[in-house]
């Protein structure tokens, strides 16, 4: 094969599930030539400098005072409370957005209705605005001087500067992740299988459970992983609505900020390393799912 052939573009056509068959089978063009290798080297260097070195620095700083101090820092009552609240926020946000994401994606991809474009735009909204702005909108709606604040206070319901506000903020920020994974995948699949099941007498619930979801299961799992990672690492919106009450309304990212502002950098990096570990586990699970997905079509 000549160099001209190697440099020529290859026409790859995606199938009905939006995946290139050649990539499913693990077929890829080898990196040859000066320019591709140069670009690969630049990309690797950029990733190492921007991502790799900071992650290594976090773990190095976390263990700077020894393993005993590290374990003590992550086992303090405030740190444990922050971990529990972080896990609680994720445990509430992910299932809520799972139900919403599947419902919204199925509706947008499989049906035509007035306001479809508006719904799609609203799904993307949390990604388009700053998390701080998202937190301020929750304060505007549920705060003491907000739209529903006086009514909530009269009934003894506390949202802002309390756990419900943190759960709302986390759910709002992570709302698009599952839906955005499923909508293009369902649209690429088309409606033929659903229409065939409908002709055979299946109802809407059966079509969704036995036809649609099995075809998008890997995309669904990928969206859940991204949603969970974002929920555990959310800072901006949660910082606005939390009130920074130690042991009560601080999530793990907020606890890291407080420790760092108090010049307790070793403890701050120790808690930050937990978030880094969660991110690495998320990447490992994502890679495993992608490998299984591609292996299933090899």
Biggest β-sheet, characterized?
none
Mean pLDDT: 84
Q: Structural class per helix/strand content?
A: mainly alpha
Large-scale geometry: globular
The H-and-E topology, N to C, reads as HHHHHHHHHHHHHHHH
- Number-wise, the strands total 0
Gyration radius over CA: 23 Å
Oligomeric state of this protein: single chain
Terminal-residue CA separation: 25 Å
Architecture overview:
The chain is mainly alpha-helical. Helix content is 74%, strand content 0%. It contains 16 helices and no strands. It has helices spanning 3-7, 21-24, 34-62, 67-74, 77-110, 116-128, 131-142, 149-154, 163-173, 176-189, 192-199, 204-215, 217-233, 236-242, 252-261, 265-295. Helix 5 crosses helix 15 and helix 13 runs antiparallel to helix 16 (265-295). The model is unreliable at 1-14 and 16-20 (pLDDT under 50).
Task: Summarize the model shown.
The chain is mainly alpha-helical and 298 residues long. 74% of the residues lie in helices and 0% in strands.
């Amino acid at each position: 094969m000549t160099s001209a052939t190697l440099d020529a573009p290859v026409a790859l056509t995606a199938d009905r599930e939006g995946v290139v068959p050649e990539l499913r089978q693990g077929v890829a063009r080898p990196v040859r030539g000066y320019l591709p290798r140069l670009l690969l080297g630049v990309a690797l260097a950029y990733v190492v400098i921007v991502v790799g070195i900071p992650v290594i620095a976090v773990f190095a700083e976390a263990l700077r005072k020894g393993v005993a101090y590290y374990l003590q820092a992550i086992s303090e009552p405030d740190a444990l409370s922050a971990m529990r609240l972080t896990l609680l926020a994720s445990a509430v946000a992910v299932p809520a957005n799972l139900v919403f994401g599947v419902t919204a994606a199925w509706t947008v991809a499989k049906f035509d209705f007035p306001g479809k474009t508006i719904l799609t735009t609203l799904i993307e909204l949390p990604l388009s605005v700053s998390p701080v702005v998202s937190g301020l909108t929750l304060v505007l709606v549920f705060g003491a001087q907000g739209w529903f604040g006086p009514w909530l206070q009269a009934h003894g319901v506390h949202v802002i500067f309390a756990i419900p506000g943190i759960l709302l903020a986390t759910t709002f920020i992570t709302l698009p992740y599952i839906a955005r994974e499923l909508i293009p995948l369902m649209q690429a699949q088309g409606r033929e299988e659903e229409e065939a099941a409908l002709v055979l007498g299946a109802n809407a619930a059966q079509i969704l459970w036995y036809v649609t979801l099995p075809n998008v299961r890997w995309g669904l799992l990928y969206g859940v992983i991204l949603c969970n990672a974002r929920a555990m690492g959310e800072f901006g919106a949660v910082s606005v609505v939390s009130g920074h009450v130690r042991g009560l309304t601080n999530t793990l990212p907020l606890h890291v900020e407080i420790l760092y502002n108090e010049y307790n950098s070793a403890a701050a990096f120790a808690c930050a390393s937990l978030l880094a570990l969660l991110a690495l586990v998320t990447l490992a699970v994502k890679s495993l799912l992608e490998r299984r997905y591609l292996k299933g079509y090899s």
